[in-house]
Amino acid sequence: MPTVSELKEGLWRELALKAELGINGVAISGEALDFVQPGIKAQEQVHCLFEMDFETHTVELPSHFYLPLGLSVPFRWNPKSGYRVDLIGDRTVLIDGSEVIAEIRFRERPAFYGAKTSDGIEMAQIGAHYADRHLFVVYSNECSYKDKGEDCLFCNINYTKDVYGDKGGVFWKNARQIGETAARAYNDGAIDHLTVSGGVIPERRELEYYLDVAEAIQQHTGLDDFNGTATIAAPLDLRNLDRFKEAGYRTTAMNIEIWDKGIYDAICPGKARGGGGWEHWVKALEYAVTVFGHGRVRSNIVAGIEPKRSTLAGLEYLASKGVVGTFAVWCPNPGSELEGHRCPEPGWYLDLAHKLVAIWKKNGITYQHVFDSNASSDTLQHDIYRIEDETLPIFDTVRQLEPAE
């Protein structure tokens, strides 16, 4: 068993591999796929918001896998990738070219995925189980920016709906279905946090829907504070943010997507023209902190479209105002206007993630703030925070096995 110091060195190497897999995706052999059995044994993908694979598909694919030291990797299928999951005996292994580089394991399908709502819908289609102990509910793939041809250029939310129809979680969920699914996931001990999200819809409709969902979650779980994040468009009437808080959401998220104003106008035309514009989104984020509190408001930037210094300037500014600024690795999703483009190299993202964690810590944003405001905990920056602070579960295992002095 390695020492804690040796473990950290191994985790940094594993994190670099995770970054490679996130950028380049991974292929999988038919034998391995049959063995893993996504949707039966392994947790399957649910296309509740975006198609994040490199190509669309009709076969069931797994959602996540774990590297040997425990880092969770979202499965992004790329049949052209140099990385491949294969089967050796009864072991699923990750192969780079012809070299076996790691034995991996796939996340087991959670028990609540097989349960059904009172109207007969599989709960896996209502809320996706994300790492670590998160439930991600997408009420619909409808985005009103499509009507004017003003979708964000990196986004494939409407394309995903067109391709997958009403299958795989791509349909409107009602408040009761969400309340029942949340209750089952909480009762199973599978989650500690949930996020409600969706495409941009008219403001009044969005507000009323979120209020109904909060009430249903409280009713079915018996929890006044269900640790929920309301992911919304920046409301034109900022007083509506008070109503989200009063309804029971602990945190809120408004994703600005791009920090550079000029690039924002070009990449996010709907938000720039019909959503109040960049200045209004920043104003809404700052106001939200006065309502929800320091570290209880989140805003995401799609990293890799604008220069790194611009993204870092945005993350620094947001943190200084008490906002948990985050970034997502830009995936040139199929069906988006930027399909076929290329994102930066893995090292670019690793550097950005290290700098972001330093920004968080400098501005008093704790890991609990980050956990509570994000839909998942398997980003590079989440991992860096936990490796630096030695809070990943494997650290406890190593400490328990260390000889007593």
TrEMBL record:
Pfam families: Radical_SAM. Keywords: Iron, Iron-sulfur, Metal-binding, S-adenosyl-L-methionine. InterPro entries: Aldolase_TIM, rSAM, rSAM_sf. The keyword DNA repair does not apply. The keyword Aminoacyl-tRNA synthetase does not apply. Residues 151-303 form the Radical SAM core domain. One of its GO terms (molecular function) is metal ion binding. Its cofactor is [4Fe-4S] cluster. This is Radical SAM protein.
